[in-house]
Design goal:
The chain is 47% helix and 14% strand. The longest helix is centred in the N-terminal third of the chain and has 19 residues. The chain has 27 helices and 21 strands.
Length: 645
């Protein structure tokens, strides 16, 4: 261990000077579990640079003192208090000028990135001459500002394209996608990635190496220079496929600021003011806070909140059960998957391998994930499992028979959960010796894409089991939403009247294409008719009978089900499906106000579920509908949208 010859302590930073001449600046934000770039942190960084300017070091390493990671980004609370255009410009100017100063120091600088390095944290790292990434699962680098309806204003829009080329940089900035250490090195964002055991030595060697940065290939230089307009126009076309400028202005601003101002938002104050003060930015900040609230349900310090699973047993290898098992294995758990025989399990294993290859890329990691997913037709894994998930077909008698065999074999403290989407837990648990321990853990299809999981509590449920279920959901990187047991819980219960209203519109003679186009224009990720085709018309009919308050099924639905036109899975529903895609004719104009008419029943049902206590409050209901249905995030959620109109 190198002894410091000088040690300066600020409130949030520590500065060590080693006998070698290297200075180590460690950010350890006081009173917080994670580092964020608050005004106080940034002010102290400026003071730290003042000291180093007076007595320049041989080099500077910037690192984190937090176990949680490098820097999570700017201080969200400070951003939420930007109530004037002048305050917004001051915030951008503070980071832009400070990081430009860091980039211009005469001595070499290195960011030692371990754990999350997001937003302003990555912009700080980009202002250093070198970026060394620590190769471990928690290391992730991203500029996710677009997810909050804003842009990287502290140099990221300028420096990231210079490092990795404009097309790749725009892709990262326009999607908010993250890179692990190895991909960051491969793309040129990180100069190297090393295992934790050698990071100290590697950081000092790289810092003093005087190694020139990897130059951009000739074609990438052209795309950042003479061909800049080509890249920008291509990016606009890609963004337009997913986001309308009136709903999500930030990605369009990122493209414009990069193309016309070289990434300097201060040169386009009208764009800066418009984005920071936009309703979208305020609502997406609200969605971020809702997401953090859902995450908090897995962090309880009360009994059950510290639950950690190592083994999971899933019964039922159909689409839902198989994909739940695959997701748990992907997240590092050992999973046994049970069904009547190996032939029923095999398709789930094939889908799982495809998921692992898509998500992990590394052949060794794919092999390890496959090894964690064990076919188990006899159910031998039950006795070892920390969580047992029932995912068989929706029949109460069949579930009763299964629970009778499972419960006596489970180890003490293990969770017993049902993935039922339509049956009341109270009707499933009478056969159990400890009925209060049964919880609902309701995933949505497709499991790998849908972030929300409803954690369902029946009457007089054991609170410890509910908290443990939430902790498990967070452990596998999903968002837990506690709900009370009721038909459809929250998400399916609000979708039913929405889809019913859409089919009633078809019965009135409005074309499915026009209905879907109207809701896409409203901001939904998928039109309701295409959604019904995707879910399956037979499932929509069954769900409607249970959730539509006794209303008769729409004629268009009954007629198609009678003809076995069941949607995507049969190749024909409201649309003809080819290669997994609906074949749509050009949409004719829909009646004015159609979108508002069709979301009105969804909003009314959401309000009713809050009033009935199925979900605890309006904010959680908004969170559930956004993350469970994709309800237009720029609105801040259905109830928020309704009250703010």
């Amino acid at each position: 261990m190198r002894e410091p010859i000088m040690h300066d302590t600020f409130t949030h930073w520590q500065l060590h000077r080693e006998s070698s001449g290297i200075a180590i600046a460690t950010l350890d934000r006081a009173g917080e579990s994670t580092n964020a770039l608050s005004q106080a942190v940034m002010t102290e960084l400026g003071q730290l640079l003042d000291q180093l300017e007076a007595a320049p070091p041989a080099g500077l390493i910037i690192r984190s003192g937090k176990a949680a990671g490098f820097i999570a980004g700017a201080d969200i609370d400070e951003f939420s208090r930007l109530d004037t255009a002048d305050k917004g410009r001051q915030l951008v100017a503070r980071g832009w000028e400070l990081f430009n100063r860091l980039a211009a120091v005469p001595y070499p600088t290195l960011a030692l990135v371990r754990g999350h390095c997001l937003g302003g944290g990555l912009e700080l790292a980009l202002a250093c001459r070198y970026l060394l990434a620590v190769d471990e699962p928690g290391t992730k680098m991203a500029l996710p500002e677009v997810m909050l309806g804003i842009f990287p204003g502290w140099g990221g829009m300028s420096r990231l394209p210079q490092r990795i080329g404009a097309p790749a940089a725009l892709d990262l900035m326009l999607t908010g996608k993250g890179l692990d250490a190895r991909r960051a090195r491969k793309m040129g964002l990180a100069d190297d990635c090393v295992p934790p055991r050698v990071m100290e030595m590697a950081a000092r060697q790289l810092l003093l190496s005087n190694t020139p940065r990897r130059p951009l290939p000739f074609m990438q230089k052209l795309l950042s220079g003479p061909l800049k307009a080509v890249v920008a126009n291509g990016a606009r076309k890609q963004v337009a496929k997913k986001a309308r400028p009136e709903h999500y202005p930030a990605p369009y601003a990122i493209i414009d600021l990069w193309q016309k101002q070289g990434g300097n938002a201060l040169d386009a104050p009208e764009v800066l003011d418009r984005i920071i003060s936009s309703p979208t930015a305020k609502n997406l900040l609200r969605v971020f806070r809702l997401q953090e609230r859902l995450k908090s349900f897995g962090k309880s310090s009360e009994p059950g909140g510290d639950f950690v699973a190592r083994r999971v047993h899933v019964v039922g290898a159909g689409v839902m059960g198989g994909d739940i098992a695959a997701w748990c294995a992907l997240r590092g758990l050992t999973v046994s998957l049970q069904d009547q025989d190996i032939s029923r399990i095999a398709p789930a294993l094939q889908r799982a391998q495809a998921l692992f290859q898509k998500k992990l890329r590394d052949p060794l990691a794919v092999r390890a994930a496959c090894d964690r997913l064990l076919p188990d037709p006899t159910g031998a894994g039950v006795v070892h499992a920390d969580v047992v998930i029932e995912a068989i077909f929706e029949n109460a008698e069949a579930k009763h028979a299964l629970f009778r065999t499972l419960e006596p074999r489970m180890k003490p403290g293990a969770l017993l959960a049902s993935n039922t989407s339509s049956l009341r837990l109270e009707d499933l648990r009478p056969v159990l010796a400890r009925p209060e321990r049964l919880v609902g853990i309701h995933f949505f299809n497709p499991v790998a894409m849908m972030p929300l999981v409803e954690v369902v509590a029946a009457e007089a449920a054991d609170p410890t089991a509910i908290r443990a279920a939430c902790a498990f959901v967070r452990q596998i990187d999903k968002l837990p939403l506690p709900v009370r047991s009721a038909p459809g819980f929250l998400v399916n219960a609000v979708l039913a009247p929405y889809m019913l209203a859409a089919m009633r519109a078809v019965d009135r003679g409005i074309a499915p294409e026009s209905i879907d186009a109207a809701l896409l224009a409203f901001g939904m990720p998928m039109g309701p008719i295409e959604l019904i085709d995707t879910v399956g018309l037979d499932i929509a009919l069954a769900a409607g009978q249970q959730l539509a308050d006794g209303a008769e099924a729409p004629r268009c639905l009954q007629q198609r089900v009678e003809k076995q036109q069941l949607g995507k899975k049969s190749g024909q529903g409201f649309y003809t499906w080819n290669n997994g895609k609906p074949q749509k004719t050009a949409a004719s104009s829909a009646p004015s106000g159609l979108a508002e008419e069709l979301v009105a029943p969804l909003i009314a049902r959401t309000q009713r579920l809050v009033a009935d206590g199925i979900v605890a409050d309006a904010d959680l209901a908004d969170a559930g509908v956004i993350f469970g249905t994709g309800f237009a995030p720029f609105t801040g959620g259905p109830l928020h949208w309704q009250t703010s109109r």
